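Retro notes
What went well: the complex prediction finally ran end to end.
Inputs used:
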Amino acid sequence: MSQVRVRFAPSPTGFFHIGSARTALFNWLYARHCNGTFVLRIEDTDHERNTPEALRVLLEGMRWLGLDWDEGPEIGGPKGPYFQSERSEIYRAAVEKLLANGRAYEKDGAVFFRIEGERYREYDEYLKAEVEKVRAEPMVFEDAIRGRIERVVDRDFPIVRANGEPVFHLVNVVDDIEMEISHVIRGEDHLANTARHLELFHALGATPPIFAHLPLILKDPAVGKGKMSKRDQGALIEEYQTRHFLAESVRNFLCLLGWNPKDDREVMPIGEIIESFDFPGIQKGAARFDEAKMRFMNGHYLRELPVETYAWFARPILTEAGVIEEDADEDYLQKVLLLCRPKLDLLENLADYSRFFFTRDYPLDEKARAKVGKKADPSELAGELAAAIDAETEAGVAGFEAALEKAANEHGRKAGAYRPLTRFAVTGGLSGPDMGEIIELLGLEEISLRLKKLASAPVEESK
RNA sequence: GUCCCGUUCGUCUAGCCAGGCCUAGGACACUGGGUUUUCAUCCCAGCAACAGGGGUUCGAAUCCCCUACGGGACGCCA
């Protein structure tokens, strides 16, 4: 059996689009599944938008997602160079060959590929001009995902521009031949191009690879129509990097966007995905990106992280948000993180969720204050409870419960009246980590202090 | 305009190729309940789909045809 060689051939634009990432991912998965080779080839023939920064974004995104390539930039390989900008000689040779065997001709300084068949002229509604067309034999191929596809190429097309630069169709096919690519896995937007590519493969005397066209990722209908483009909210991998999504969850989610293992597994380790991944599991219809599900997965992976790793991710986030200092105590940090984790799905929310553990200067949610103040004056309640706590000798939750009981009896209230209030005083809101654990970690003294602070604060009328 | 591809719950999808096991399964979201002082975790329950029409067949989500809708391509962009 011949070696499986697949490639991801992006054009560095300065963005790493979610659709490109998914294409890269599926190529990578297939290569790993088949024990094949994953080639990264940079289609940088468009010199204007091609900058080192654009390449960096791309490679960084690939690495972040864990998509390691076997041949390509920075590591080289036997079929290099892997930048199209460095392969001009190879393209020139291919053009010479086509020119020599009569499948190409020069016109207006450019080189055109000749489609064989009877020629006629026709007004083209789309091009708004009369053009020369060809009655050609249809190109037929078996798409690994969609089955039999048939399409005619009815017009000659340029393969070298008047400025001497080779055109995408040409370089793409030449490189796939030279790099001995066995399977071309790419987006459905290339489906219509495939007939042209097939013409080129044949004219160059090469056996075409197997094609597999992936369904497109569509934008949220609320945003607009059509395939997701780089301008759409949530369309770039960088966005999820900056929002501190775990790469694992983004990758897992992307795997499921257009592929599934045919059983009920969804959150699954990458090794299992690699093992199960194959063309029959790939969807034909386009999919819509659903951030809610990715968030859910992120929460799942977050909860599975070893606490040291979790802290390693969290520390810079909290430092940047001004919640902790660079030298914050690791032990205390880990305790806080563990307390926050059960209900946290996104690291980007961690700062607001945990601020009160590190400072007394946390915002008080006015809605929460209004809610707490519905039955009784918060300041009054806080004062009563603080006094009871100060009189208490036992520490921790036990002491808190005793104080609660005492305050309730003394002032003729239900113990429950103090509970939401305590959370509000201690955290600034009405939701968050388990209150008992907060009390244990912060200590009764601190709880009392925060209650007193609330008791002495001026009461604001809620609007 | 021409050509190509697609269409199962709001979303991602299983089932379709090898028609009966489908009163269509799972997951996210949503709703309700439980746990909880609170809560974004956890547990339970619920909601909700075969685009429409015609055929073939004893029987169709599954096969065939048409229509509608969605998407893509048609560039000296990639």
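What we learned: The mean pLDDT of chain A is 88.
What to try next: split runs per interface for comparison.
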